[in-house]
UniProtKB/TrEMBL annotation:
One of its GO terms (biological process) is signal transduction. It is found in: Cell membrane. This is G protein gamma domain-containing protein. It comes from Prunus armeniaca (Apricot). The keyword Iron does not apply. Residues 34-61 form a coiled coil. Keywords: Cell membrane, Coiled coil, Membrane, Transducer. Transmembrane segments: none annotated. The lineage of its organism: Eukaryota, Viridiplantae, Streptophyta, Embryophyta, Tracheophyta. It comes from the Eukaryota. GO terms for cellular component: plasma membrane.
């Protein structure tokens, strides 16, 4: 899990760098734009983690028809 987080941070840094170069590079980059992008990435990663946990719970449960028949 820690390696996943480290790679995620690397991906975020690469994305921010690429956005900075598209925005004109160097000092002209809008830091608020970077912050918005990183905030959205963090939100999406949290949502992904939540959905993965929920999917894991669903995979561990028995079929509904089996439970209803009892």
């Amino acid at each position: 899990m820690a390696s996943d987080t480290a790679s995620s941070v690397d991906e975020q840094a690469q994305l921010v760098a690429s956005v900075g170069s598209l925005a004109g590079g160097g000092g002209s980059t809008d830091n608020r734009g970077r912050h918005r992008i990183l905030a959205e990435l963090n939100r999406l990663e949290q949502e992904l983690k939540f959905l993965q946990e929920e999917l894991g719970e669903l995979e561990r449960t028995e079929n509904v028809s089996t439970i209803c028949s009892e």
